[in-house]
Amino acid sequence: RNYYGGNWASFSFSGLLSWIKENQEKTDINDECEDWRKLILENEEVISLSKNVKTIQHVEDFCFVDQDSAEDVEEAGALPKLPSFGASGADGVAQESEKECPPVECALQEAESSEPEKATGTEPASAMEGKDTEVTSENESSQSTALGESTLQLGKTEAAPSEISAQEPKKITYSQIVREGRRFNIDLVSKLLYSRGLLIDLLIKSNVSRYAEFKNATRILAFRGGKVEQVPCSRADVFNSRQLTMVEKRMLMKFLTFCLDYEQHPDEYQDYENSTFAQFLSTRKLTPSLQHFILHSIAMVSETDCSALEGLQATKKFLQCLGRYGNTPFLFPLYGQGEIPQCFCRLCAVFGGIYCLRHSVQCFVVDKESGRCKAIVDHFGQRISADYFIVEDSYLSESVCTNVSYRQISRAVLITDQSVLNTDSEQQVSILTVPPMDLGKPAVCVIELCSSTMTCMKDTYLVHLTCPSTKTAREDLEPVVQKLFNLNTEKETENEELEKPRVLWAVYFNMRDSSGIDKNSYDGLPSNVYVCSGPDSALGNDCAVKQAEAIFQEMFPAEEFCPPPPNPEDIIYDEDEIAPEETGLSNSPEAKPESSSEESSSRGSTAVQKEDKEK
């Protein structure tokens, strides 16, 4: 590919149009070098890799604004953002920084504490509404997971949902979208980061967080009775809510408090282990509206497939993540989810890792006697040897995947002219779960991003819809889009349609979900070849982190996964080994920061920690 991140990538608008065209045409890739088979020895055999990526299907894009004036329009030239290791987008050009809505960096700083869940200091969090201020959560007590004041007293920076903006949405044309295309960073996969999830912990531990900025998801929404409502999450939200009666507020707080330590009260849920979470909620003296909020907007689980225990675990996870960085459990990386793999690439590059674009691989070279993979052969006919090989599932040929059964993810991306729930602030990052429209249909996760997330141009919103596939993406998601948005052209006349946000442009596509597949399902893979999946359909990133750590520990059981790197100023290189090795394939220098002034060296480089002040 000519872009970073595979199916985790983010694109500018023109980059996404190129990606759409590429996947609609599905052109075959021909070998550039036919002589590579001469590199294979008699005692070796090859496992050919797939020449075509087949993880994306049923790509359909639609424009709902006039395109006549956009025929000769090109993306406006823009000042790039800070130089980075590999910019997203098919054109490989870094996207422009959006000065009108300055972002706020959410520094992911590890709390200094003797226990992982405790913190003695404050933790910076990104400010709401994209203002250049900093919101910090209260000091987390030893019972940081309790539904108490220390966790849930947050800065009140969010507008009341009932205050509807009277301002009319500005008219956006297709030519404007094309011209401002570099302001878009459109993710192929839509996810959020749980503030106490595995990825946040890894970003902090490995110090990869230095390369990224984050913004809080500012509100959790629910779709009930044909209307979008804001869900109260924190203690303050619950008691300030006008949607709930005083009795409902007490019911909700009592149930959420129970969920935080449900393990201590097994007698209250053991009788429902074979029941669904929805059935369990119906026994807890909760009103239908509270059951809806908890099931779809807090636990975010299936009404029919989720057990009572799984629902309690999901609810507890949601509550534990409240208050660490903001008023909701979620963070979103500025410039899109595609920034996250690039951040790891940047740190990898600092220590000698190489990422090659437009560089395809023909095959694995396997030793017949040992059965281990010895090398790969690239499309230039170059043979590259290594001890371990990691391949993404999509590169494996059909002959290797004959026994593999894949799931599919239905995705839609919309550009709209206003929010699904207007307030007096335009800068909202919202997550909404739409319950199944029909029996057998999955719930749909909707994430709406404002311009201060650096993913869309000013006066527009970028909306991601995701669900497990039952049919094509358009068949799965268009009914939800029609419920929430106006799909008519500018000459619409129905009053109820006029009240909805208008879709300016949309794309639907199905993406392969290869998560959860056992390595033994692949036929004939050598023991030192490891397979990682593409994105899964879950909201968080735990699956990818667990998979990466499992593969790493299988290869290097005695090593720490993503250890904290030394500070650049603490690294001293020997004069005779400053020049990098010609192959560029040497192991990265290892250094573990300790409170010591001793030097630890690895492959010619020495990480020297600063001497203690006392010395």
TrEMBL record:
Location relative to the cell: Cytoplasm, Cytosol
Principal subcellular localization: cytoplasm
Keyword annotations: Cytoplasm, GTPase activation, Transferase
Polar residues compositional bias, start-end: 136-154
Single Gene Ontology BP annotation: vesicle-mediated transport
Residues in RAE1/2 domain copies: 409-537
Biased composition range(s): Acidic residues: 571-580
Coiled-coil regions listed: none
GO cellular component: cytosol; nucleus; Rab-protein geranylgeranyltransferase complex
One example GO MF annotation: transferase activity
Keyword field contains Transferase: yes
Cited InterPro entries: FAD/NAD-bd_sf, GDP_dissociation_inhibitor, Rab_escort, RAE1_2_domI_C
Region of interest (Disordered), ranges: 106-165, 560-615
Pfam family, one: RAE1_2_domI_C
Homology family: Belongs to the Rab GDI family.
Stated name of the protein: RAE2 geranylgeranyltransferase
Originating species: Rissa tridactyla
Lineage of the species this protein comes from: Eukaryota, Metazoa, Chordata, Craniata, Vertebrata
Name of the gene: Chml
